[in-house]
């Protein structure tokens, strides 16, 4: 269950990372409020997951899920570049996340 919570925390991290773009420097109140709420939920879920998962693993997976999701949504939503090096880098992050899961109790 804590792994599910951790991945969910990572998805909320994607939400607030993308949300930052929409806040336009915290000048848009609705986007800013949604982003701050996503931040709080993400950190709260991370804290819950860390109760039983190793801190290094939990943090790395949280950041990794956030990074992979943010890169993908950046490509889809903001027309960021898609090339072999970016895809390969994301694949390496995913491989690292799977390795951390397999190496954790």
TrEMBL record:
Originating gene: sugE
Membrane-spanning intervals of the chain: 27-47, 59-78, 84-103
Membrane topology field: Multi-pass membrane protein
Keywords, comma-separated and alphabetical: Cell membrane, Membrane, Transmembrane, Transmembrane helix, Transport
NCBIfam families for this protein: PRK11431.1
GO biological process: xenobiotic detoxification by transmembrane export across the plasma membrane
Protein name as annotated: Guanidinium exporter
UniProt record similarity statement: Belongs to the drug/metabolite transporter (DMT) superfamily. Small multidrug resistance (SMR) (TC 2.A.7.1) family. Gdx/SugE subfamily.
């Amino acid at each position: 269950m804590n792994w599910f919570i951790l991945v969910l925390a990572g998805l909320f991290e994607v939400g607030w990372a993308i949300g930052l773009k929409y806040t336009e420097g915290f000048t848009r109140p609705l986007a800013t409020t949604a982003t701050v709420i996503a931040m709080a939920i993400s950190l709260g879920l991370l804290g819950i997951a860390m109760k039983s998962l190793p801190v290094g693993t939990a943090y790395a997976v949280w950041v990794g899920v956030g990074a992979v999701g943010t890169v993908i949504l950046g490509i889809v939503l903001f027309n960021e570049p898609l090339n072999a090096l970016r895809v390969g880098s994301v694949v390496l992050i995913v491989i690292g996340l799977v390795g951390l899961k397999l190496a954790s109790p």
